[in-house]
Structures are given as structure tokens and as C-alpha cells.
Amino acid sequence: MFIEKEQQKVEEKKKITVVQWLLAILALGLIVFLVVWFVVAERVKARDVARVAYLKEIQAGLEMYFNDFNAYPIYRSLALGSGKALCLDANGFGDSCDGRIYLNYIPVAPVPADGRCTAELNAFTYHSEDGKNYQIDFCLGKTVGGLKAGVHAARFGEIK
Fold it and tell me: What phi, psi does 22 have (nearest 5°)?
């Protein structure tokens, strides 16, 4: 009789209560939420870092073009990486390039737009009215280096 009662107590201790199950599910849910949140945050940061790197690549191609022609390609407003601006050669931006090529491929801003950036602001938009200067407008979702989140402009040798 005594042994049976002790065995029954051991069996009751082995049973998992509903509260214990709920706590385990809650802990697991919290871990999953934190992992997903971290991955999403890192993807946003990676897209912004890529935006800045792509701009530096485009700037390098524009400087090579300027060295040969003493002017930048003239366009009022041109979305880079799409339509008529897929590459940069001696004729300026175009959908195909031949001869002296400065940028064989114009990178497109990573999507989706992040933070307060819209799809329009996310695109790299090139402006040069006179060929003496240029500006490329773009938007960052988060702070990258010294650049805060928001709309920025890349000009000769700088990104502000």
C-alpha cells in the first residue's frame, strides 16, 4: 500500500500541467519572434548598405566618363537601371552599350523600399542639366555610416 502511494506520487509529478505547456509554447513563440525580427532588421540594413555601394559604383563610372568627355551625360531626370539606362558608354546611358563602356550594368536600388521611402524615392534618379555637375537622388530606410534614414543626393565624389 505504501509503495503504491509512492508510485502514484511519482506518476503525478511526471505529468505536465496545462500551465507548463502554455509557458513552453510562449517561450518558443518568443524565440521565433526574436529570430524573425532580427533577420528582417538585418535584411533592411543589408539593402541600405547595397544602395550606398551601388551608388559608389555608378559614381566611379560617371567619373571615368567625365575624364574622357569633360562632361557628364545630360539628362533632366532618368531612372537608372531601367528602360533607357541599363548601361553607360560613350553615347551616355542606354539600353545597350558598345564601344567604350564605362558601366556595363547599372545597378538597380534594392527592393522593397524601406522605412519611409516610397518606391519612387527608392529608385536611383539621375539629373544633369548642363553636364558640369550631376545628382543622383535616392532614399535610405535606416542609417548607414554617416548617412541618416531618408532622402539623399549623390554628387561628384560625395553622398549627402
Answer: -60, -40
- 154: buried, middle or exposed (CB in 10 Å: 19+, 13-18, 0-12)? buried
∠ at Cα 71 (90, 61), nearest 5°? 55
What CA–CA distance (Å, rounded) separates 110 from 49? 10
H or E element that contains 76: strand 75-79
| Segment among 14-18, 48-52, 58-62 with least mean pLDDT | 14-18
Reported as a single tens digit per residue, the pLDDT across 61-79 is: 999 999 999 999 999 999 9
Using DSSP, state whether 111 is helix, strand or coil.
coil
- 8-state DSSP, 158: E
Phi, psi of 72 (to 5 degrees): -95, 160
Give just the sign of the alpha carbon dihedral 54, 90, 121, 139: positive
SS3 7: helix
Report the C-alpha gap between 73 and 69 in whole angstroms.
9
